[in-house]
Structures are given as C-alpha cells and as structure tokens.
C-alpha cells in the first residue's frame, strides 16, 4: 500500500491561540516579537496585522511606523512546540502517527485511515473544519510524500489532494522555498534565475550537489518519493485502563465482582511496576441494551493495593443495574500519582497519617458516608481566623507553615461568626453573660482581649477583640467584639468557636 501523508498548516498559530485567551483582541491588529541583536523582531502576526502591511521578521519600529496602534506581545520560547504538541495529541483520533512540524505545522501519516471517513476529501474536510471550529486558521494537503504535502499546503492549496504518484507534476511550478531549504540556498537559486522547481529539478544531481550541497539533493529526492523521510511521532502516555469484554452478558452481583477483581489485579500490577497509585477511578459497565452504568471511587493516598480498591468498589455494586446483562467492563484510573514503596521497620510502630491502614480506613468511611464528610486542614499564612486554615488536597500533604501554638485557638472554628447578645461593662471589659441559641450563658472565667487587625490588603472593616470565656457549666467559647465602643452605634459581639 502506498503511504500517504497529511500536512496541516496553522498559519496564525500563536496569534490564534492568543485571541482565544483574550477575545477582546479579535479584529485588532497585534503581533508577537522577541529581542534579537539589540532590536525587536516580529515573530508572529494575526491576519489584521498582515492586512496593515506588517510582515514576519520585520523590526518592531518599522511595524509601528506602518501601523502605530499595533499591539506588541513578548514571545515566550517554546510556546509553538507546546501548542503543536497539544494539537497533535488531539489529532491522534484521526491517525496513529502524528509528528510536530515546527514552527507552525503537523504531519500525519494517514495510510489506511481516510476510508473510515468516506475518502480523503471528506477526511481532510473533517479535520480542517474541526480545527477551525476550535479557533485556529487551518489549511491541509495530502500527498504521497511529506515534502509534497508540506509544499502543497503552503504554496498552492487550491487542490489540496495530490493524486498518488503525481507529486513531481504538482511541484513543478513551486518556488525553491517549497523544498524546505536554508535561506542561503534559496537566495543563491534566485540569483541564478532558478525561481521555479521545473528550472532545476531535472538537472543532474552531481551538478546541483557541487554548487548547492547535499541537502538540496536530499530534499528533492524526499519530495519526489525517491528517498524515505521518517517522522518522530508524538509520544502519548498509555492511559491506565483495563477492558473486559464478556462472552456472555453478566447479570449477577457475583459476576460483576469477578470482573472487577480481574481488572483490578491487572491494573494494580501495571501501577506497581511504574511506581504509581490511583487517586480516582471510574468503573463503566456497558449493557446490551445500550445503556451505561458508572461507579467512581477516590482514595486519600495513591494506592495500588487491589484488595483495598476492591472493597471501595464493592460498596457500590448494589447500585449497578445490569438490566438484560453487561457485555463490556472498563476500569479507568483517571487520576494517578507517584506511590513510592514504603520501607517496613521491624521495631517501629505504624503511627500517624503515613500509616497505610489509616488511609484505607478513611477511604472506606468516605465510600460509605460520602467523600465530603472527612476533611483534613492545614495552616495558612493569614492573620484573619477564617483564612488561617485551608483544606488539604491529600492525606499526606505537608503544611507549608506551622500551626499557631502561642495563642489560644478553638478546637472547632465556625465558618461564619454568629451574632450574639452580650452584657459587658465598658470599656474593654470581658462579657458577664451572653445569649446564644435562645439560651443565656453566664461567664465565670475569661481571658483576653486578643486584638486581631483586619487584613487591609484583602478587605476593609473593623478589627476584632477576642475573648476566651468559660460559662457556669464549664463550657468554653471564643467570642469577639467587632471594633471599638462607639457613641453613635453599639458594638456588635460574635461567637466564633468552641474549645474542647
């Protein structure tokens, strides 16, 4: 089978991407530029800037002279490669081999792929329209060779499909730049009047080699299909997924358990070999009637322990409705993290959150009661009490700052302070009693005040004077007065937490 290649050209790659990030730039001329030898050079332009006469490699000063309102954005190294890699990974759905073609293109080997879309014409139209719908100005061409497809899309896109074996005829009227040559070689060819490929493509290679070097001969041979050109495809990591098709539809809970165990054993074996563990997984069951049943689980620490993961999935088996039977199971590890092997100590006890048994217990509790009922908090660098703690994203996440230990803080801090009625002498005396939830609490002991100023860079408002008080029943509370006593407006008191 003759190999076929698709060349995709994103003519305004970087500026299209910037317009997607900043929609206000749509319709406004702008360009990217970078410093080079003491001056700034244009590296990318959008169609509006091109219409004003701005060109690539132009000095920014000259571009500003042509169009004073041109917006200039600094170029960041490697941006084109990152954008093309992302687009290339998306294009893998159309061809198994996709390569980045810097600075503004992709190359796909599409041998045996186009018939799935009804032929090369509809295949090419599908890809171009989908990419354009994402906001990228896209052109593409198909040919037997990479060189011919690359030249066709950039120099004559009126008929984007080159029939098999016709690449030589398609290239004859193209300029030397269509062979992907160095600027110096292109300039020398033009000086000699060789402005079209038909002027020299059939010359003896020995004569061309003496004057222009090996690279010109190599590019001619590659474009004509006389020399192989190899791609360096994008490497996409294989997803952690297990599939289990069933010879007979599964309708019983026992059958579902067996399917889950088989997939978990295989998945956990792969995870262990790569030193990984899953944090989130989705079990999908495809029924024979076309309906889908899904179950998701999560872990507090990366885990590749199949018995533990099975217990989490087992809790949800009763929610799966097999209907007339399940014909396909898939298990996807949607979030995977490093799970280093922990070294066992013969004489040390398993203490703290690093104990795997504690993590697995929390996972089972979360599976039964819900993922939102178990929380772990870490200190945050804020003076304001409501902002001084944050939720931990993982069980083993380490605090970036130390807990406050030199000042009393309640065991339970209310998310929002509750307004209370207080009887207190003035000024700056602790309360004698307060009413909370329609009950009067008489204060027997108190400690304070501790003044906490509001974080003025975050919001405006009064400071707080906090008191730690104990009522006649021995219960302790954290209450505060907002601001100073004033003659015009009465001070407001709040309950903010409870001590153990």
TrEMBL record:
Name the UniProt record assigns to this protein: Protein ImuB
UmuC domain boundaries: 9-150
A Pfam family matched in the record: IMS
Gene transcribed to yield this protein: imuB
Keyword tRNA-binding: no
Keyword DNA damage found: yes
Keywords: DNA damage
Lineage start: Bacteria, Pseudomonadati, Bacteroidota, Sphingobacteriia, Sphingobacteriales
One GO biological process term: DNA repair
InterPro entries per UniProt: DNA/RNA_pol_sf, SulA_CellDiv_inhibitor, UmuC
Superkingdom of origin: Bacteria
């Amino acid at each position: 089978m003759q190999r076929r290649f698709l060349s995709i050209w994103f003519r305004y790659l970087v500026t299209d991407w910037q317009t997607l990030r900043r929609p206000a730039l749509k319709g406004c001329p702008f360009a990217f530029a970078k410093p080079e030898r003491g001056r700034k050079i244009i590296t990318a332009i959008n169609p509006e800037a091109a219409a004003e006469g701005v060109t690539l490699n132009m000095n920014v000063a000259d571009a500003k002279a042509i169009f004073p309102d041109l917006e200039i954005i600094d170029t960041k190294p490697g941006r084109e490669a990152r954008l093309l890699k992302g687009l290339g990974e998306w294009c893998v759905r159309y061809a198994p081999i996709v390569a980045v073609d810097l600075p503004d293109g992709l190359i796909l080997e599409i041998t045996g792929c186009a018939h799935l879309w009804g032929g090369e014409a509809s295949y090419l139209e599908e890809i171009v329209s989908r990419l354009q719908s994402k906001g990228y100005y896209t052109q593409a061409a198909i040919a037997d060779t990479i060189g011919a497809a690359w030249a066709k899309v950039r120099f004559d896109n009126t008929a984007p499909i080159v029939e098999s074996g016709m690449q030589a005829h398609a290239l004859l009227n193209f300029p030397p730049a269509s062979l992907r040559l160095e600027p110096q070689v292109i300039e020398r060819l033009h000086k000699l009047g060789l402005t079209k490929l038909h002027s020299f493509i059939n010359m003896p290679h020995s004569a061309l080699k003496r004057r222009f070097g090996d690279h010109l001969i190599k590019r001619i041979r590659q474009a004509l299909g006389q020399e192989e050109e190899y791609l360096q495809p994008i490497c996409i990591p294989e997803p952690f997924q297990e599939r289990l098709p069933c010879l007979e539809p599964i309708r019983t809970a026992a059958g579902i358990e067996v399917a889950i165990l088989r997939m978990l054993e295989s998945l956990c074996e792969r995870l262990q070999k790569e030193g990984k563990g899953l944090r989130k997984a989705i079990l999908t069951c495809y029924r024979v009637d076309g309906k889908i049943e899904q179950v998701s689980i999560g872990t507090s620490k990366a885990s590749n322990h199949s018995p533990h993961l099975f217990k989490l999935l087992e809790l949800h088996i009763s929610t799966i409705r097999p209907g007339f039977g399940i014909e396909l199971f898939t298990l996807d590890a949607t979030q995977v993290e490093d799970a280093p092997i922990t070294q066992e100590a013969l004489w040390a006890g398993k203490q703290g959150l690093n104990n795997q048994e504690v993590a697995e217990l929390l996972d089972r509790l979360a599976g039964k009661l819900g993922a939102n009922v178990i929380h772990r908090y870490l200190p945050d660098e804020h003076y304001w009490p409501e902002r001084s703690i944050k939720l931990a994203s993982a069980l083993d996440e380490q605090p970036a700052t130390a807990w406050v230990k030199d000042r009393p803080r309640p065991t339970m801090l209310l998310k929002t302070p509750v307004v209370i009625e207080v009887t207190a002498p003035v000024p700056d005396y602790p309360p004698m009693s307060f009413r909370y939830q329609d009950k009067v609490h008489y204060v027997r002991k108190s400690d304070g005040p501790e003044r906490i100023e509001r974080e003025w860079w975050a919001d405006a408002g009064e400071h707080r004077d906090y008191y730690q008080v104990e009522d006649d029943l021995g219960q302790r509370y954290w209450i505060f007065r907002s601001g100073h006593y004033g003659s015009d407006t009465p001070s407001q008191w709040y309950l903010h937490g409870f001590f153990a």
